[in-house]
Design brief:
- Two copies of one chain form a homodimer.
- Chain A is an alpha/beta fold.
- Chain A folds into two domains: 168 residues, Medium-chain alcohol dehydrogenases, catalytic domain (Quinone Oxidoreductase, Chain A, domain 1, Alpha-Beta Complex); 149 residues, Quinone Oxidoreductase, Chain A, domain 1.
- In chain A, 27% of the residues lie in helices and 27% in strands.
- Chain A is built from eleven helices and 16 strands.
- In chain A, the strands form three sheets. In chain A, strands 3, 4, 5, 6, 7, 15 and 16 form a seven-stranded mixed beta sheet that branches. In chain A, strands 10-9-8-11-12-14 form a six-stranded parallel beta sheet. The first copy, chain A, has a two-stranded antiparallel ribbon with strand order 1-2.
- In chain A, helix 7 links the parallel strand 11 and strand 12.
- The longest helix of chain A has 14 residues.
- The first copy, chain A, starts with a strand and ends with a strand.
- Strand 14 of chain A pairs antiparallel with strand 14 of chain B.
């Protein structure tokens, strides 16, 4: 099979031996595989694949057709449309996935949408509901609202009856993020101060000098990193939860433990990739049960910015790294 | 009524008007009232009483006899032995408490024990079970194991089938803390490093040069503060929880968010005093149901270091501030 391959910090497309499904596993003929920030880190040697995943084939998510069943696998039949998070190896013509990690593809989704769904929606759902326990009526702040996890989180929270504010750095993306239902502010508007009673200006971005950030927030989803932590603590409601799942802007920050106590707050750190199979399978079951039906009813959608054929994987990586997009970059395999 | 009274940073004993129970409240004739660290802070003007509590009468807990019922109060009868956490005003001959905050005093406890129970056992139980969700078989580390909350946490965790390690700064208190069932180490032994497989030396304290801290820990109860945070992160197990409820040694610390993510860990801050009535009442119900029966069966005990009559409240405060004790300092009112 052919697969995107990491060689000395570069992405190539190379021939690999076909993988063979073991007990409980399924061989999937991949039709689409989304790119994620973790792929960029892995290409730079900063985020090696966990044991059991191909070390040199990137790709944390895939969608495709069941091609062959390993011994005892019974959740799906050959020919079924499936998708999954994987520890690595998703950006290839074939991939082996444990059947407990696979989910059915909702009929409403085409291949690029399905290939770009698992990672960001599982990450966002796990963070805001399983970790931070967002409740209907609560107010969620998403830092980094234009990213894949950000737009997934906004949609999931809105569908659950929460109010959502999002910071978006790039001015040209703010209207698109607002279209998902978030009140959008600039990072400077966030840093400028908060109102307790919600003087937010809807979809109109806050200027640097205007203190219109409509806090306080019950849950803050942190996709940017350390620079926000102090202001997050200020903007947090009593009993609030901060869930940190991205630190691209820095990992180390000063934490005021007395403020944490006074707000009876908590800070979660989370990552999906390092989890054992049973926890990933549990996250997949939650997604099947709580989220996938919302794609059938059009309450959720997977924004796809651009697709590339597998052979153009290097160009897809360059496109992802260039940023400025809203929506997934997906490799498509016909 | 007479009551301990804060005047310009000093403790006096002064006459006050008798309080009158409102709807749903109970007038309690106080027989014993424990001292807590918060009283010391309030005396120094650093921790004012919340609205609705007497501003100048300290005391966060009390035990006594029901003297009079406010309109509609029905959980207890005149003459019942009761105890409670209060927002303030506990160190007085009379106190008014909402009936939903009151708990019955287990028959096995005398007045000083009952007067020293509510604050530390509710705080410890809320922190390690309600917040940090300690499970049987897990390993708890208590930083500051010789304090009132520390000894309560050790006993509660042991009774729930957890393994417990505790740091104790004062060498002369280590054997007493070990007698509650904890493996005791020095703060230097903790900072010196951790073993993954438990090379702990049981009740034998670790010398400063020996790296015997028997981590990793599933839950860390932090009663000391910021200086421990970095090493707590190192010593934490995957999926571990740190609960910060004391910061006497400092409040601001650097937090590595990437380490928090990699361990899928969370950090809670908590304080009981600022909570609304319904949350305090809920904590009291949990204590009644899950903890008080363990006093009847002798699985738990309230260590009392020394009692003082109300008129000697100033001496009791001096004794508390001097430290070096294991067990509660309790005002007794006959």
């Amino acid at each position: 099979m052919r697969a995107a391959t990491i060689r000395d910090g570069e992405i190539l497309v190379e021939e690999h031996p076909d993988p063979v499904p073991g007990a409980g596993e399924v061989l999937v003929r991949v039709r689409a595989a989304g790119l994620n920030g973790a792929d960029m880190m892995q290409r730079r040697g900063l985020y090696p694949a966990p044991p059991g995943s191909p070390a040199d084939i990137p790709g944390l998510e895939l969608a495709g057709v069941v091609d062959q069943l390993g011994q005892g696998a019974q959740r799906f039949a050959v020919g079924d449309r499936v998708m999954a998070i994987v520890g690595g190896g998703g950006q290839a013509e074939l991939a082996v996935v444990h059947e407990r990690q696979l989910m059915p593809v909702p009929a409403a989704l085409d291949w690029p949408e399905a290939g770009g769904l698992p990672e960001v929606f599982t990450t966002a759902h796990d963070a805001i509901f399983t970790q931070a326990e967002l409740r209907p009526g609560e107010h969620l702040l998403v830092h980094g609202g234009a990213g894949g996890v950000g737009t997934a989180a906004i949609q999931l929270a809105k569908a659950a009856g929460a109010r959502v504010t999002a910071t978006v750095r790039r001015e040209e993306l703010r209207a698109q993020v607002a279209a998902f239902g978030a009140e959008v502010i600039s990072p400077e508007g966030f840093a400028g101060g908060h109102t307790a009673r919600g003087a937010g200006s809807g979809t109109q971005p806050a200027g640097p000098g205007r203190a219109v950030c409509p806090g306080p927030f019950d849950v803050i989803l942190e996709l940017v990193g350390a620079p926000n932590l102090a202001e997050n603590m200020n903007a947090l409601a009593a009993g609030g939860r901060i869930c940190v799942i991205g630190v691209s802007a820095g990992a180390k920050a000063e934490l005021n433990l007395l403020a944490l106590m006074a707000k009876r707050a908590r800070i979660h750190g989370s990552t999906l990739r390092a989890r054992p199979l049973e926890e990933k399978a549990l996250a997949a079951r939650r997604l099947e049960h709580e989220v996938l039906p919302l794609f059938e009813s059009d309450a959720l959608r997977v924004p796809v910015a651009e697709t590339f054929p597998l052979d153009e994987a290097p160009a897809a990586y360059d496109r992802f790294a260039a940023g400025g997009k809203l929506g997934k970059i997906v490799l498509q395999i016909d």
